[in-house]
Design brief:
By secondary structure, the protein is of the alpha+beta class. It folds into two domains: 89 residues, TATA-Binding Protein (2-Layer Sandwich); 71 residues, TATA-Binding Protein, CATH 3.30.310.10. The chain is 29% helix and 32% strand. A ten-stranded antiparallel sheet has the order 2-3-4-5-1-6-10-9-8-7, with helices on one face.
Length: 182
Amino acid sequence: MSNSDKKNIQVVNIVVSTSFEQDIPLEKLAATLSNTEYNPEQFPGLVIRNKEPKTSALIFSSGKVVCTGARSMEKVHESIEKIIESLKKVGINITIKPKINIQNIVASGNVGMDLNLNVLAMKLNNTEYEPEQFPGLVYKLDVTKATFLLFSNGKIVCTGTKSEKEVDDALEKLIINLKKVI
């Protein structure tokens, strides 16, 4: 695949999980930090929002964390560091370097051509297309864990991958499969 093809899809969201490996007093965080939301009757986790990088994280009293919104692993690490700094401000010292596990990467882009979704729904395996419900076609690639949303104007969204290489590989396979049926 040429370099120009790779620029047609960009990571827009990385979802990671980690653990601070210690109990976190969520009530104390909610009472002290302004960028949090905590409503334990509705959900057991505290939401903390960072402005830069623009991310949100769920923190559970067990110390488990799910962070979303970063567009690169560098921004994921920055976001987790910011959370650790916020915890330090309220007297909670995280002494470990949290192990970060990628749960999902979402990327979006364009295949550079209009797509006839009716034809694709008939010719490709593993598709769902109900235009009355949603204007995109859902296409699950056989060989990868990637799932694509395809739109008639050529725009695409890829989800289910766990690395940028998997995103690139899935895009390459998508283009090959599209060229076979178009």
